[in-house]
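Worked problem 6 (solution included).
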Amino acid sequence: MAPREKTKGEVSDLKAKLAAVIKTGTLPQPKDGKGGSSGKGSAGATPKDTQTIKRGLFKSILHYMTINVDMSGLFTQMIIASTPTNDIVLKKMLYLYICTYAQQKPDLTLLAVNTLTKDCGDSDPTVRGLALRSLCSLRVPNLIEYLLQPLKTGLSDRDAYVRRTAVLGVLKVFRLDPNIVEELELELKLKEMFANDQDSQVVANSLSVLQQIVRSPQDLITKPVVYSLLNRLKEFSEWSQCAVLEFVSNYRPEDGDETFDIMNVLEDRLQHSNSALVLATIKVFLHLTIAIPDIHQQVLERIRGPLFTMMHNKGPEISYTVASHLRLLVERAPMLFSQDYKQFYCRYNDSIHVKKVKLKMLTSVADESNAYDIVNELCEYATDPNETISRESIKAVGTIAMNLGQTADGLVERLLSFLDMNMDHVTAETYIVMADMVRCLPDQVEKCVDALASLKSVEVVSPEAREAIVWILGAYGDRLQEAPYILETMVLGFDEEHARTQLALLTAAAKLFFKRPPECHRLLIDVLEKGSESANQDVHDRALFYFRLLKRDIQAASQVLGSAPPTTATFGEQLGSDLKDALFKEFNSLSPLYGEPASNFVAGDEEIEYEIDLYENVGGENGAQGGEDANGGAAYADTNLLDLSDDLASLAAPVADPQAQASAAQPPPQQAAPSAPQDPMALLDMLDVQEPAAPVAPVAPVVRLSPSPSMDAGKFQQLWGSLANQDSFVVSSPQVRARVPELANSMKAIGVMTMASGGQEPVYKFYQYAQQEGANSVYLVELIANTQGGALSVTCKSDSAALVKPFASFYQQSLTSYVT
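Solution. The predicted structure is:
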């Protein structure tokens, strides 16, 4: 295509300019005499010297590299053009180029190794460091022998910058071949530098590398090492101080006096302006005193001030990070923070994420002494313009009420008052919280049900809220006179409801049927019929399950569906004690922010395995996946709810017994948990629902190609780049070489026209198109024929997602029959 040809032209142009500079030291003169050039770095006036010309050309090459243009073809010219030179800028650009393409050109990289090795002995320490860093970054295993001597020399260099670079180079060598590090005793050399080097950054780099290469990092944590690092702590950079404190946090003092000595040394770090350093210091304090409860509590009281200051006075990112860590401490010891609950009130300039964390902390510190003050504040947030904060505040009110239990009467009334607000999301979230509350607080059921007494129809839109209302009506509909009629209005629009609401309607109708049979007779019939006709598999299966259960054993159905809802004290969203302990161990990391241990989102080096190429055998993977699904379906067939042959084939539509109906028409006795009718068949006969028909499998679309499609090259190119619906396959045959010449004519006979074709032995390309007869759907094909390998690689695209696979199958059959 045109962009690719332009890129090739730029590479050729740069190669010609590099060759001219190498030969004459100047740029080639343009033939038209107008001056200038297409290169990015050579526009304008002619440079005065060779060094400036090289800089311009190298900048142009790096520019193309940054936009992902392959410049590896200039490898040889780059090496020759840059040697010899003392220009540090030119060397930096050359090193960057070499490190980028070293793995692609391992043979040519050998040409650059001599240059890098020579620069490792340069008199300028900056050049020595840059060369050593680049030499260690080549990542070519075959060249590792060339960097060992410069690396050993760099570890003993007189300049600290070179030693820092050499220490990090040991880690890069370890990644390539761990055995070499052991053979050359580089680990011992790093330990010596870690203990005796005068430069603090060399010590910090040595610590970082040793923790990754030693077999047991815990062996590094000794009393002399820890004391040495703490005594030099202020010499380190802020980043290195955080690394040192992370290392010290794993140390276990011998006694309480040693613990206090360490904390006294680090006391001033709590007042540091760097929030990362403060959090690292807090982690040391917490881990040192974890085995001393009294001191640990004093530490929690000591660190409250710095944490509150950072949460309120830093930017939104840091505030959220600090708030997430503070939330972990609050949930571990809520009593210590209960008097500081006002610190968790939302401020006008807090970000949404910080406000959400503060609301969670308010629910944790709420107790009988401050609950009503906190709820009053939360009620103000219920009208927040941001819907997320409004919902979270309502949820927090409900959580506090559930946590307080028997003393939450006033809080429940405040929650129910939200139903009077004319705000859809407020009303919806209140219903959701009410459903949770009646599960936790059976004593508050009457208040919640009374709040629904004036409800004539469900007007909220949220599927979660509609589901909550339906659940309450099904579980406690015997206490609400209008419950069956509200459900009937919702069943009328069953098909428009969300799947979760449909599932709730099925359960609610079945539960309420055992409590109020006459009123729910028609309701249950309608909801089972509509559920069995649903396209959603979960809804369809549940409807059939309820139908079978009621048909087979009415007593079992009464126990399963008509039982009272269980009472629960906690919900799965709450953090367990084991998870809190795991997050506490990983304090000052991403774990408190994500709310899960690092093992859930960070894989170790030994856990990463690349066994297959994700871009190969796509068709095979799809086929394997399809086979797995097919096997799963076969295994499930024995118990699939869609298998109706065992109990429905012999059943006709039941005819209700008038006497049984008359008996069932009597109002049931008023009691908390009504039992099933005396005669199970009398209740069963009320289910005069017809047997649901098996779902009809969808008809696959048929591909009929127009004999005379029309398309120009511009439209083909535009569609090929924009269409996302595609399918690929490969056809293999030893007859490919003989069939390629007449391939276009053969495909034309079935309605597939060739837009363009070309190539040379052994690879040929065909671009083809077709059109669905009587429709506007188009098909595009890219066919790559490899005559040497006897393979035809085909990619089909279409503007119709439903037709792309059928067309690919049609094309594959036609192509296979032609070449075999």
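Discussion: The longest strand covers residues 763-771.
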